[in-house]
Structures are given as structure tokens and as C-alpha cells.
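Predict the 3D structure for this chain.
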Amino acid sequence: MAPSRVLSPQSVWDLPAVLAAFREHGVKERHVYKVWSALLKNPDIDWSDIPDLPKTACALLDQQFSRCTSTVLRCQQSTGGDTTKLLIRLQDGMHVEAVVMHYDTSDRYAGRQEAAGWGNKRSTLCVSSQVGCQMGCTFCATGTMGLKGNLCCGEIVEQLVHATRVTPIRNIVFMGMGEPLANYEAVRAAVGMMGEPRLFGIGSRHITVSTVGVIPRIKQMAADLPVSALPNDCACW
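Done. Predicted structure below.
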């Protein structure tokens, strides 16, 4: 079992936490998307400046939530410029990494008339789902750490928020620190937010959850997020 972690204030990007707070105080769920959409356009926006956001919601957000609970300590570019590593400090002082991988295939089809318009520049974000990991894979540095704690949905989504300030993100891979399906509910909620057209709008076939093979959770995810067939390597979405 993962060591307990409690955030105070909680992340406004934490779907389950925000929805629970809004429901408890009678605020309609549709207002949550106004908050997130406004933050994507202006990270420093005052809650009261969001059009038609109820005063009750503004008060809740002020009292219980933070626009971002994590901080980018270091943004390190590789020598060749094809990767950008983000070292992220969490609210409780622990750290995770997220890596942006940059690809440019625009020259691959140069000179081929039949391939006109093919190839492009795109970026893939590799996100972490846990601090450390309990799976103990000997080929993985994270596996030697042991499990320090699960990330909440908001902390996972915040990695994407940080990355979008570096470059537009087309693909997401859950191949960073941790076993995603050992933190199932947070990962499921984060995947839903990443694919939400009103927010990040990343297509379902552009989100990959990689697992060592937690079979019951693979089956559960296939039922909860039936967006594509399971590939042979047990990576999904």
C-alpha cells in the first residue's frame, strides 16, 4: 500500500476533489470546466474574473484549492535539443520528473511528390504517476527507490500544464516514475481530463498508459475507457 499523502490546499486540476467540493456546496459541475478553461488561457486569473462563476465556487476555490500545487525546479534541455526534462517539486517536498520529447519528421518525405504534406513537428510528454515504484524492475532506476507515494489526479495533470508552457503537446505516455495501474483512480481521472475536448483535447489514440501487466486493472480500464483496442505490449490509451 502506498504511503498516505494529503495535499492542503488541493490542486484545482484534481477532478475528483473539485467535483466533490462543488457537489457538496451545490455548485453545478459545468462551472468546473469554466475554471479550467480560464486557467489554460490565463494561469493567474482571479476567480472572480471568470464569467458567470458563482460566488460560492469562488469562495471554495480560494479556501480549498491552489492553481498549481507543484513547481518546476529545473528545465533541462538535452544537447541535441530533442528532449526537455522537467524536475518538478511537489507540495510536500518530494520530486518527480516529466520529459518532453521533440520530433521533427518534416524532412523525412522531402522531395516525394506523393508524400506532399506528410511529416511534421510534434512533442510527446512522458508523465509520472507515482513517487517511486513498488514493482522492483531491475532495469528501472525508479524501481530501486521503493514506493514513496501516489500522485493525485491534479499532480499528474499539472505535469501537462507545466509542459504546455514549454511547447504544445500532441501525445502523452505514462512511462515516467511509477506503475500507472497501481494508482488507478488518479490515472483514470487524469486520462479523462487530458482527452477532454474542452480542455487539452488530446485524442484517445495519442494517450498511452504503459504497465508491467496489472491484469485486473487492464481489464477495468478497457471497460472504463473503451476508446481503443489493447496493443500487444499491454500499453493502452
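The beta strands are 10-11, 65-66, 71-77, 83-89, 95-104, 121-126, 130-133, 146-150, 171-174, 207-209.
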